[in-house]
Specification:
By secondary structure, the chain is α/β, with parallel strands linked by helices. The chain folds into two domains: 5-215, Rossmann fold (3-Layer(aba) Sandwich), CATH 3.40.50.300; 226-283, Alpha-Beta Plaits. 37% of the residues lie in helices and 27% in strands. The protein has helices at residues 45-52, 74-80, 96-107, 111-120, 136-148, 166-181, 193-196, 216-222, 235-244, 265-274, 286-301; strands spanning 5-16, 19-30, 34-38, 60-65, 68-69, 81-84, 154-158, 185-189, 201-206, 209-214, 226-231, 250-254, 257-262, 280-282. A six-stranded mixed beta sheet has the order 6-7-8-3-9-10, with helices on both faces. A four-stranded antiparallel beta sheet has the order 2-1-4-5, with helices on one face. The chain binds adenosine-5'-triphosphate. Adenosine-5'-triphosphate binds next to helix 1. This is ABC transporter ATP-binding protein.
Length: 302
């Protein structure tokens, strides 16, 4: 491991009840990087995150987290990591400040840490509000406050913005980027494409296996997909026919236009020409790429 690497693990493997849910995953995350973790439901993201933060022991695999040994130094790792679980919970009948004071007590932090964290996350004016009465966005902010109060060097976020409105999500991401600029490393799982695009690098996992890793641009370029957009008076009927045409992968309506994606430009153009329409070149979206990766992974496990 170099000093600039926050997570450096290889061969991570975990089975539950004889079923392998994480299979030989290698992951490297540089210090100060925001790494996205994407993949279909049940593909093993949460399990990987829990192995990385020292809550679950891998069946196989090794490596370091913040320079600490993944297998032998789990306790030390847990102390330096902030982990926001998918279903974070609080004492609903306690205020924001009381909830944070409770967490501070668990970590043995001084009272000042609560005041600083309230201030830092813009929670001071609401500090007496009961956690149970907060909106989704403020609850999530409280959860973030609770997991960064002990100033971890690595933040692991498991679908932190599920069910939160766009403005609160944007504020949350601004907060995350500010922390990363300050040197904190972040590994965040998400199903939202716009959030994937906010990450420095993304890692796509399917059926327990890491399928691809890189910047958004690298991942899109590496998929080798071609996308054309067509307009039609009856896009629904055209989409139906195109989906059955050879060489056509995905056909997605975008308003009155269709985005048609495949791996071979000549075949795509031929499919459109057979329908009497011409396509205009369009950018392949990250969503198109992930759907393609998921289909390829399905084929591999069948
Ligand atoms: N403690 C456990 N005991 C048994 N099975 C488990 C356990 N934890 C996870 N699993 C199973 O392992 C698989 C991977 O789950 P995991 O939660 O890691 O996936 P995920 O990628 O985070 O999914 P999602 O996107 O839905 O959150 C799932 O099939 C899940 O049911």
């Amino acid at each position: 491991m170099t000093a600039a690497t926050a997570i450096d693990v290889t061969g991570l493997t975990k089975s539950f009840g004889g079923r392998r849910v994480v299979d030989n995953v290698a992951l490297r995350v540089a210090k100060g990087e925001i790494a996205g973790f994407l993949g279909p439901n049940g593909s093993g993201k949460t399990t990987c995150i829990r192995m990385i933060c020292g809550l679950l022991t891998p069946d196989a695999g090794s490596g370091t987290v913040l320079g600490l040994d993944l297998r032998r130094q789990q306790r030390a790792i847990r102390r330096q990591v902030g982990y926001m679980t998918q279903k974070f919970s609080f004492y609903e009948d306690l205020s924001i400040e009381e909830n944070l004071a409770f967490v501070a007590g668990l970590y043995g932090l001084p009272r000042q840490a609560v005041r600083d964290t309230l201030e830092d996350l813009g929670l001071t004016s609401r500090r007496t509000q009961l956690a149970g009465s907060l909106s989704g966005g403020w609850k999530q902010r409280l959860a973030l406050a609770a997991c960064i109060m002990h100033q971890p060097r690595l933040l692991l976020l498991d679908e932190p913005t599920a069910g939160v409105d766009p403005k609160a999500r944007r504020q949350f991401w601004d907060e995350i980027h500010a922390r990363a600029l300050g040197g904190m490393t972040v590994l965040v799982s998400t199903h939202y494409m716009d959030e994937a695009e906010r990450c420095h690098r993304i890692n796509y996992i399917a059926y327990g296996r890491l399928v691809v890793s890189g910047s958004v641009a690298e991942v899109i370029a590496g998929a080798g997909l071609v996308t054309l957009t067509v307009r039609s008076a009856r896009p629904g009927a055209l989409a139906e026919r195109l989906r059955r045409a050879p060489g056509v992968g995905q056909v997605e309506p975008f308003g009155t236009a269709l985005h048609v994606t495949g791996t071979d430009r000549a075949q795509l153009e031929a499919a459109l020409a057979a329908e009497g329409v011409t396509g205009q070149p369009a950018e392949t979206s990250l969503e198109d790429v992930f759907i393609r990766l998921m289909e390829l992974s399905e084929d591999n496990v069948r």
